[in-house]
Amino acid sequence: KKLLQTTAAQARNGQRSTFPQKLLLDFQSLVGIPRDAFEDIVKQKKKSNPRKRSTTIVDNILLAILQLRHNVTPLYLSTIFQTSRQTVERIYEVELEFLYNLFKSSVNLFDYQRRRECGVKFFGKETTWLIDGSEQKIQSTNSGLVEIAVYSTKKKQHSLNVLVITDLQGHILWVSKSYGGQYNDRYILRKHWKELSMFLSPGEFGLGDNGFVGEEKILTPGSTRRKFYGVHSRYRIRIENVFERIKNWRSTRDELRGRVSKKHFINKSLLKRHHMQWVVAAAFVNKYTTF
């Protein structure tokens, strides 16, 4: 914490960091983003709320990123930052939304030319994107309505499901809204297809697993000739590697704590937070991870 506060203060005063390179590398290992990137986020927050003390802004941003990175308990963070558990939870909700609004534009489908440059031809079809889903485990609930909505028959667990689209080099292009585990990948894709078709060219195709068999614009192992299975798998594995990078941010990997209440599920606050965590983690992977 002292390292983060001091480097941010030096940046505000226009000073170069006085810390050894090893400590700066430790900073990135701990927080997940470079020191300069952290300082830029602090500056953006300062612009949006100039009346708040700089030290408070640094602490709040640091708290949110540490929670996203390591998924530690609010009680543990309250001990580090010398505040209450309720305050930690409130700060995380506020700063997560700030990070989401700041970085959501880093995950987009706008650049057709980029997709085309790294695309390949399958059966004469221009294939420019990869798609897959990921389920994150949650605890069971006391509400029968919520139990049905979040239970995944595929994974045999209570979970939330999200779809991700990348280009063929692993750059993340889109993260869907979050859904209860009851809803499979095809359902989510069809739910968002009208939105996606606004950005995807009519001649573009994607690669997906057998969960998407029958979808017109997705080439699956079941829709390819046997001799192309290896080529299909070689590209498809790249999105699995992207999921691994995203899940280095443990708030997207670990089981979500606490029982899901009927109130939080119906008003979609749980789904909204889950979606924001995935988008922020995806944006950090895009901006600060070398492919």
What does this structure look like?
This protein is of the alpha+beta class. 51% of the residues lie in helices and 14% in strands. The protein has 12 helices and 8 strands. Strands 1, 2, 3, 4, 5, 6, 7 and 8 form an 8-stranded mixed sheet that branches. Helix 1 (2-12) crosses helix 3 and helix 4 (54-70) crosses helix 6. The chain starts with a helix and ends with a helix. Mean pLDDT is 84; it is low at 18-23.
Describe the structure concisely for a colleague:
With 291 residues, the chain is of the alpha+beta class.
Q: Supply the helix-strand structural class.
A: alpha+beta
Number of strands: 8
Poorly predicted tracts of residues: 18-23
* Continuous helix count: 12
Separation, N- and C-terminal Cα atoms: 29 Å
